[in-house]
């Protein structure tokens, strides 16, 4: 037995473990022996075995305590009891923390509660117990444990951080922000705090009202997210998910703030970081489509569809890219697939009638366009939202469908109304120009198409009709 202790002290843990287990099996069933077995197992990272031996050690410590207390008073017994309690405490602490690693939070909570009874002024114990209580759904108990941990150590950054995250989950966002700020004040490079603070600000920016975020807050959030990526690059261990969250937030923000180069570069970092993630293929494809580069957009979208064949955003973007390349049948096919799998998705409801309309399927498109305009108006009224220009934009789409179905005068009137209500909407001018082209009024068509191109330089349809109209005007003159 003593050789086992000696080998442990010499850090020869495998041999020490072997001798200690042999001693235990030879009837040396004492807490002290098991305690050193657990210490050797801990050094050898044999965590499953630790759980079994820790339970044995804890049970033995109770038996030995009863035996010692039943003996006649002896000054040496007090010293023995003090050592026994110290070993029991450490076994409970080790067992509780390892149970947490294996998601056995009921056992972890019980062990840590007993450890707290022995040493109630250990901040770390209260913090560890709080984590298990969260997993057990006891948020009230977890908050109390966090409070006690912070009371014992006001600079316990992990307790401050996790209490803040729990408050966020409970909807107390102002309090959450206060705790995260305190963590960053104590530890400016705390990766998780940087991530959550940066994402919290950026999610508010990406909401329906970005004006609630000041430029200073925006700059701070961008800097925090960049710092997360930099810190994780320096120390990449176990930070894969954190890096992904930081980069994906930055990519979405760059896209929303019309910074396509930075957005695409960030998407490429995401792809390099995790090629099997759909989001960067989806976002970069959408960006290239918006930039008027449908071929590159399709390359990325198709890669995303390999990973997730029924992704609604990818299918809708693919349909729009194919439409701009005048591959109308393929565009409809992609959109119909999106409709089959996601019939009520907002993107499908918005773009399906438009794809049908600009693929010359006017009869199918017209009732959908009318219904979409009605749905949007009802939504706006019920939510008491400010006027949505998209409702006015439906005038030109419905007007264009009616024009092509023979209601020329009514169709023209609706297209004119769209231009009058929103003179900066390029498609309004393009539709009017295409209608005039079909009426063989080529010079007038050129004026409207030119204005449409000025407002929407990436409109393939406007450019195609404008080129044809110019050529006809040239030969006529």
What can you tell me about this protein's structure?
With 477 residues, the protein is mainly alpha-helical. It has helices at 2-9, 13-25, 31-43, 47-70, 75-101, 105-118, 123-135, 139-152, 157-169, 173-186, 191-205, 215-234, 240-256, 260-273, 279-290, 294-307, 312-324, 328-341, 346-357, 362-382, 389-404, 408-421, 426-438, 442-455, 460-476. Helix 2 (13-25) packs antiparallel against helix 3 (31-43), helix 7 (123-135) runs antiparallel to helix 8 and helix 11 runs parallel beside helix 13. The protein starts with a helix and ends with a helix. The relative contact order is 0.03. The model is unreliable at 1-8 (pLDDT under 50).
- The radius of gyration over CA amounts to 34 Å
Task: Output the helix-strand order.
Answer: HHHHHHHHHHHHHHHHHHHHHHHHH
| Residues in helix, % | over 70%
**What's the main sheet like?**
none
- The residue-averaged pLDDT reads 89
Q: Which residues sit in consecutive blocks of at least 5 with pLDDT less than 50?
A: 1-8
What's the helix count? Answer: 25
Q: CA-to-CA gap between the ends?
A: 110 Å
Number of strands: 0
What fraction strand?
Answer: under 5%
The secondary-structure class comes to mainly alpha
Quick one: overall form? elongated
Topology:
Layout: H1 2-9, H2 13-25, H3 31-43, H4 47-70, H5 75-101, H6 105-118, H7 123-135, H8 139-152, H9 157-169, H10 173-186, H11 191-205, H12 215-234, H13 240-256, H14 260-273, H15 279-290, H16 294-307, H17 312-324, H18 328-341, H19 346-357, H20 362-382, H21 389-404, H22 408-421, H23 426-438, H24 442-455, H25 460-476
Helix pairs in contact: 1-2, 2-3, 3-4, 3-5, 4-5, 5-6, 5-7, 6-7, 7-8, 7-9, 8-9, 9-10, 10-11, 11-12, 11-13, 12-13, 13-14, 13-15, 14-15, 15-16, 15-17, 16-17, 17-18, 17-19, 18-19, 19-20, 20-21, 21-22, 21-23, 22-23, 23-24, 23-25, 24-25
